Amino acid sequence: MNTRTISGEREFTWKKFFLQWEWMLVLILISIFMMNSSISPYFFNFINIADATMTFLDKAFIVFPMVMIMIMREIDISVGSTVALSSVVMAMLYNAGLPIGLAIAACLLTGALCGFLNGYLIVRYKELSAVIVTLATMILYRGIAYMLLEDQSAGGFPDWFSYFGWGYVGTIPFILVLFVAFAVIFTLILHKTVFGRHIYAIGSNSKASRFSGVKVDRIKLIVFTLAGLTAAITAIFLTSRMGSTRPNVATMYELDVIAMVALGGISTAGGKGKMTGAILAIFIVGYLQFGLGLINIPAQMLLIVIGLLLIISVTVTNLKFKVKKKKTVGHPQQKNVS
Amino acid sequence: MKRFVNLGLLMSLLLVFLAACGSNQPAEGGDGKAKHAVVFKNTGNPYGEKEMEGFKNAIEDLGGEAILRAPDDPSVEDQVKIIEELISQQVDSIAVVANDYDGLEPALKKAMNKGIKVLSLDSAVNGDSRMVHVNQADPEAIGRTQIEAVSEMIDGKGQIAILSATSQASNQNLWIEWMKKELEKPEYKDIELVKVAYGDDLRDKSVSETEALLQSYPDLKAIVAPTTVGIAAAAKVITDKGLIGDVVVTGLGLPSEMAAYIENGATPWMYLWNPLDVGYLAGHASHSLVEGDITGEAGDKFKAGELGEYEIIEGEDGTEILLGDPFRFDKENIEEWKEIY
Amino acid sequence: MGDRLMEKQSILSVIAKHREAGLIGFIIILSIVFQLLNPKFLTIGNLANLITNTTILIILAVGMMLVLITRGIDLSIGSTLALSGMTSSLFVSAYPGLNPLLAILLGIMVGIICGIILGYLVSIIGILPIIASLGLMNVYRGLTFWSSGGGWVSAHQMPASFKGIATSSFLGVNTLILIAIAIFLFFYFFVNYTITGRQIYAVGSNPESAEITGINSKKILLLVYTIMGGLSGLAGVLWVSKFASAQGDTASGYELTVIAACILGGVSIAGGVGRITGVLLGAILLGILDNALPLIDVSPFWQMGIEGGIILFAVLFNVIVNRAVQQNELARRVV
Amino acid sequence: MNEMVLELRDITKEFPGVKALDSVQFELKRGEIHALMGENGAGKSTFIKVITGVHTPDDGEIFLNGEKVDISNTKEAQKLGIAAIYQHVTNYPHLSITENIYMGHEKINKKTRKIRWKEMHQDAKKLLESLGSNLDPKTTMGSLSVAQQQIVEIAKALSTDANIIIMDEPTAALTHRESKELYRITEGLRDDGVSIIFISHRFEDMYRLADRVTVFRDSEYIGTWNVDGISNEKLIVAMVGREINQLFPKKEANVQEELLKVKNLGQMGRFADISFTLHKGEILGITGLVGAGRSELSQALFGIEPYDSGEVYFHGKRVEIKNPSDAIQLGIGYLPEDRQEQSLILDWEIGRNITLSCLEEISTKGWLNERKERSIAKKLAEKVNVKTGSIFNPAKSLSGGNQQKVSVAKLLTTDLEVLIFDEPTKGVDIGAKSAIYEIIVDLANQGYGVILISSEMPEVIGLSDRIAVMCEGRITRVIAKEEATQEAILEAAMSKERTVSAS
């Protein structure tokens, strides 16, 4: 047997490059900008475009770890409740006399603990799917928030605390600056590190990953903890924007976040999707809502539009995928025998 | 690739369609009309629809443009978002029916900093985040009338319970406090308040809370529900269980919803203010603020169309405009009112 | 010592094998505790309340079980429920002379249409159920608000016959309970004694084998979501009739309660597993918590936390028992 | 009456881009066992799916008892009396045996359409008994062993009154003893007049059972022979298209110092008192019947399901192995039994698959170095001679044998010293088999210590320096290469006596 040479250089074609879901999202985003500018005279100026990000970026922080979770074929539907619980803990500790810095730290810690508990239960009791575990903790965490604060609201933070949600760096909202930093870091982690590669491996074939020495349990634990931590970050921004908090804040945030991730092209079947897609999806949903808000569209229309956007875009990816599949997967065994 | 382009076209089409929908709305900003916005708690609430309608009537009478907004569920987050959108549209005034007393403060302060006049109506925001509050009823008056009514219905003695909402909107808690204060008076010494239950303003929860009250307190004589969802649920339970006459229900309710129960006697009578008037008064207040007729200081006076003249007074937290005493709905007048709201 | 080990093992394996028995045991223990804390708990009146209030949950949980067995999930049922409730009540308020049966049929039809749309997206287009139903959840909710023009349909707008659907009784038993019993019996027969019923399990247990056996899994999926839609539609009419009020935000978030009932009842999210009796008990357990916690004066703000804790406990308990059984079996194998 | 129950003429089936069957022929006599052989990808699976109606052929004719028939779906095939037992067990793990048997042709009450459970349970019980099994038909399928599931599959085929039964690799997952049981059942069926198409990679199966053999290669029909009229070599040439001179390459006898030492290793309920040593350059075969604990032992050594008693020494130093990454860190590599489930990520490129277990080494502080990754992947893919054009092709585009080569390549990325091969040639055709043997021996010659776990006795005997035989979780005998015969191994595999540790 003579050894053959196997190509080690990746073929690059423009067609393949442009045939990525992310370009479709870019196209949609541009259309939304065009639509917004045409329907409202108030949209297209720098201040409003920048300020708009303040209205939708709070929950966007959870999108980053959620992308990782969904790539790993897991899901976390407790994040909304985690936001509520960590926000309530922060407000209560501050009102109980703790310095604000420590209260913020406690908020982050609470979030991380919630996420860690999710991850721990999922890793320790593999018979339980993440849906079951996080459904239970979703009810539990919000329940604890209610136990703590009942139907009160807590707030009275120092003035500078509102900087998180309302402050600017120059003319750019602080939240946008932090978001961009997170986006860069998480994108690099997912696509350029061993950790990220392992996440894809786990989502594509968890067993094979474990057999290949990937520390599956540890990675899941870390990512779920990250989800809790970012939920706490969301809690800080949300609380800062409202100046006070209550146990029922951030209801249904989990579904908003999952919708953004799905729109971004990350399939819940695991192993597929890119961080950039999810980031684009955040802005698509955000600016669509903002633009329609500027023309005072009724809330019910907004619901329908967002729902249809999700369904249509996923249908589109699905059809695209099906066509591709027909072409290549006939009988894998028969192919490439030579 | 072709398919891809097609999809792109499809998407753009969808967006154009949306744009077309959108442009039906009056969105032109440059015609010099003052723009007054009102933000209610949530959409799909007939009480809110009436309140916003009253606001709109006032604004249109005065030649302005009214923007009516409400999030799809009663959350502070979404109200903040809407306020931000209104700021971007450079409206002249924002009137809010708040989902939280403090939660809108930063958003409304930002609006005020941009020169927008801010007031609250019905469910208030704190004194720092508004110029004035349009109070549909004096909490003291509500607490007093409720207790007077229930006392009259049960002849001044027996167990009563309160079925409240979540009471986060601060109103219910305040009224309940006033009710408790009223109950301390000697003439009510035979009335015992056994429990304050919370139905969270959800139908099913309010029903099971009412059932629990009836189970736990077989001698219960009356349920006071100072919330529209709660009173309807309680009256329904009493009707279904055939307890009409044994247990009375009163409180604050919508005439349209409660007509059936007032007619069948589950609720002999109840109270509410007219949400059209609340909105109407708020509309005039918005206009006067924008015109500079009033600044929101105590002592300012303005004319509110057919409602007459109002004076701003000092409230517990910030200044207020009081609409008046709550209105009594009974068998005599319910026929006429149930069609209105 | 050896005997005791065997005994312990057998008790555990009984619990593991008969999950329903475990649930019943848990329900009995809870009932005793509640009864001790408030003697009014086990009275005919209260039990009637309890069952009546649980019927809608039972009806929905039965449908959700079928969906979960096929490895799917339906998050849109709360919205479907609201939409069908709103449509039928708008209809009866416009035509008060209408036979209430027609109103029920109309509600079911609306539900079925909603279900077919979801079923189509899942089975034919191949969108993942969680995403498709999430999208439709928003759409149906929006349509509900839109169809009512922002208003409610309230008690006086509904004819007595319509409100009577939920409050009337037959042979001294509330109609709602009768409907739930009928549905339970029908689906008990359906999943256990009909070919189509078994095919639902087959598709969930192993889709590839189902294909080879010649089962049309697309048809089965479509059917399952249609049934779920139809049941949500029915539940919508019952809900609106029961509370005599149709609102835009009716049953918002209720889908998660339904899923929780199924999970408590032993339905596996991974598909193929689930028994209708288990689901019934799961729903009743949640019903008991809802009914009894207010009775024993638990602060309303503690209810949610307690419910979450109990769900988590029940799920973990099941896993731990199963593991113990496996360990025991291994230990019995002498190596 | 026609002697042929089933005839297929000039069957062609194309999938987009692939011709899976190119005008193939097949004849099946009444009451014969007909072996169908060929390498993976020769078109056997597609061929079966044509007969059972899963695929409709693009061209060609099918005759049943001399009459031309169209089989357009599986139901029709069933009606015609054709049943298949597929290679990958296709059952419903959550459902009962009865249901698995009767799925698709349930017994129902004609009037009420109600399923008659009682009758089905009884009939299932009878069917199982006729196959010599006393399984309770109400047991759930998932709790059965592979061999038991196989029996249920046969019962299922019988329940449809099939007179043509196709068995696709039924012995692949069975032990020697279980295979014998299967032979008995199959022969019994033949004697009852059932015609059987038997597909297997094992020559042993064919010689033992079949009357005639048909060979496919590269989607084409090669020929049909009487089993007693064809030699082993000729058959291999027919299947592979070339001669394979020597299946087992010669191994240098350069066993060196001790590498791995295991003392009294145990895991509750799975294995106990396992002791052996492995030297550099040695191939230690571990064999035994299925359920003897071979795979469990190897997985424990690799940290997948950690052992709970005993000691492991590596280079004379005591070590703890709690998870696979511990094992890899130490220098122990593992080639899993099920490459599609446990080793490869089929959707991924070949290159990424190869580097998955060594990402830590080729990255700097956690950041990937894609250039380095590519060059390593290319080098290793060429080293194990994967038949592909580019390391960016997906792993699922490869044949079974080549997928296995990629799995082997994964082991070569890191600095390993001990390699555990768990059934390395399972489901691999004969051409790729010899390539894999070559790689294994080559690795041992390079100084790796190799543990070879296999249920194929010729393989164990042909490759190993020493053979440890396990029975019911314990090592019953260690046999040196010179003394290794099939009989000796079998005897040890069935004995319950324990012998001294293999040091």
What percent of residues of chain A are in strands? under 5%
Outline the biggest β-sheet of chain D.
Answer: 6 strands, mixed
Q: Number of folding domains of chain D? A: 3
CATH topology of the largest domain in chain D: Rossmann fold
Strand order of the largest sheet of chain A: 1-4
- Quaternary state of this entry equals heterotetramer
Q: Averaging pLDDT over every residue of chain D, what do you get? A: 85
Number of strands of chain A: 4
Spatial order of the strands forming the largest sheet of chain D: 6-7-8-3-9-10
| Broad structural category of chain A | mainly alpha
Envelope shape of chain D: globular
Give the fraction of residues assigned to helices of chain A: over 70%
What is the first-to-last residue Cα distance of chain A?
14 Å
Please give a quick description of this structure.
The complex is a heterotetramer of chains A (338), B (341), C (335) and D (503). With 338 residues, chain A is mainly alpha-helical.
Written account of the structure:
- The complex is a heterotetramer of chains A (338), B (341), C (335) and D (503).
- Chain A has a domain at 46-254.
- Chain A has a two-stranded antiparallel sheet.
- Chain A has 15 helices and four strands.
- Chain A has helices at 14-18, 21-39, 46-56, 60-71, 79-95, 100-124, 130-149, 163-166, 174-192, 194-204, 206-211, 216-242, 253-263, 275-294, 299-328; strands at residues 154-155, 168-169, 172-173, 244-245.
- In chain A, helix 4 packs antiparallel against helix 12, helix 4 (60-71) runs antiparallel to helix 14 (275-294) and helix 5 (79-95) packs parallel to helix 7.
- Chain B folds into two domains: 31-137 and 275-324, Rossmann fold (3-Layer(aba) Sandwich), CATH 3.40.50; 139-272, 3-Layer(aba) Sandwich (Rossmann fold), CATH 3.40.50.
- In chain B, 44% of the residues lie in helices and 20% in strands.
- Chain B has eleven helices and 15 strands.
- In chain C, a hairpin with a 2-residue loop joins strand 2 (169-170) and strand 3.
- Chain C has 14 helices and four strands.
- In chain C, helix 9 crosses helix 11.
- The longest helix of chain C is centred in the last third of the chain and has 33 residues, at 300-332.
